[in-house]
Specification:
heterodimer; A: mainly beta; seven-stranded mixed beta sheet; 11 strands; globular; B: mainly beta; six-stranded mixed beta sheet
């Protein structure tokens, strides 16, 4: 299996521009997570989907951030307009959640390194 | 609100030493606890997952223990090697759904 695939791996953009990060889940997984990692705050969960439905988006910083799952294997995280404080590594992760959303191993992609100047 | 703390923040040891990384969490109502490894510029690799009903899990030179009542977990690495150098993160998953709360990590350096 190819694992969780994220793109782009690195992006440098100017403040005010729209940024779209993409993620392909591991085949057969039904849960999708977007995390953000910074030196100051560590790893923070932004949003969690199960079976394409957003379950918890309480970690999404503000309205400039939005996430979608147009199908069962793909997700996007969009920042519009971007700001320098959005600079971070954005990780996508997936797993298979059984009935009751039970816990299983979560697999991470290699991250999208975003710099907003 | 669940808080996860890892001690020490950084650790440097010579090759061959056995070592212990510590993780503590404030809310004992967890579903499981996972230990991850993160190499510089890379994503997270899951090392061990301990369900709340379990006391420990082993994989090769790694052994993770869980004491849910006291809110503690340890990751034991036997006969450390330079290739073990990385940041190790623990994360707890609460009941209800799969939200993982991460610690800030322990940065390990194993010198040849």
């Amino acid at each position: 299996d190819a694992g969780v695939i994220q793109s782009p791996r690195h992006e440098v953009t100017e403040m005010g521009q729209e940024v779209t990060l993409r993620c392909k889940l591991i085949s057969g997984h039904n849960s999708l997570f977007w995390y953000r990692q910074t030196m100051m705050r560590g790893l923070e969960l932004l949003i969690y989907f199960n079976n394409n439905v957003p379950i918890d988006d309480s970690g999404m910083p503000e309205d400039r951030f939005s996430a979608k799952m147009p199908n069962a294997s793909f997700s996007t995280l969009k920042i519009q307009p971007s700001e320098p404080r959005d600079s971070a590594v954005y990780f996508c992760a997936s797993s298979f959640a059984g009935r009751g959303l039970s816990g299983n191993t979560i697999y991470f992609g290699e991250g999208s390194w975003l710099t907003v100047v | 609100k669940q808080e996860v703390t890892q001690i020490p923040a950084a650790l440097s040891v010579p090759e061959g030493e056995n070592l212990v990384l510590n993780c503590s969490f404030t809310d004992s109502a967890i579903y499981n606890l996972q230990w991850f490894r993160q190499d510089p510029g890379k994503g997270l690799t899951s090392l061990l997952l301990i369900q709340s009903s379990q006391r420990e899990q082993t994989s090769g030179r790694l052994n993770a223990s869980l004491d849910k009542s006291s809110g503690r977990s340890t990751l034991y690495i036997a006969a450390s090697q330079p290739g073990d150098s990385a940041t190790y993160l623990c994360a707890v998953q609460g009941t209800g759904f799969q939200k993982l709360v991460f610690g800030t990590g322990t940065r390990l350096l194993v010198s040849p």
